[in-house]
Amino acid sequence: MPLAVPIGFPQFWLFDTLSLLFFAFLIRAAWGRDREANVRADRRSRGGIILQSIGIGLAGIGPARPTLEPLSGASLAGCAIVTLSMGTAIGLFAASSRALGRNWSIVARTRSDHELVRDGPYAYVRHPIYLGLLFFLPGLSAALGHWLQLIVAVPLYLAGTRIRTRAEDRLLEQTFGDKFRDYRSATPALIPKIN
Q1: Structural domain tally of the chain?
Q2: Mean pLDDT of the region 98-116
Q3: Which of 55, 73, 79, 93 could bridge across to 153 with cysteines, CB 3.0–4.6 Å?
């Protein structure tokens, strides 16, 4: 049994286009970052980055089977899933990195002038960028027809996310104390509360 279900070329091309947009926002967030002084970092977050990357990579491993007619129902459904998943991932990343400003970093760290950001997406979840990357996974799977790989990819991604969120929360608690503890008790880590 093949690991990939059939896809249409449009969902694959749509994912490629939206991925370029996603990575453009990532590059924009990382561009021009100065060498920082007085930074407290948690190197354990790198293990989380590795697990998250492996999870995302596993969702994309394997051949694609672009045999569907472009306007078939399955191909159009794949395009809809790619659009919704990637649109959510891009929107969350763009809004979150903009809200964080100079506080944004790939590795968990706090600066001497770090701010506790609680607006924008951070009003709903403490780690919206990781939620956005979680939405990236079904977009990738729909684009390539790799739904079965999500059985392993999602748990690995979530394990890496847990490592990273714990490291970030530890640093923020050390820096902001009760102010962060109040924020943590009122705001979920990854999945927003539905009221």
Answers
A1: 1
A2: 89
A3: 55
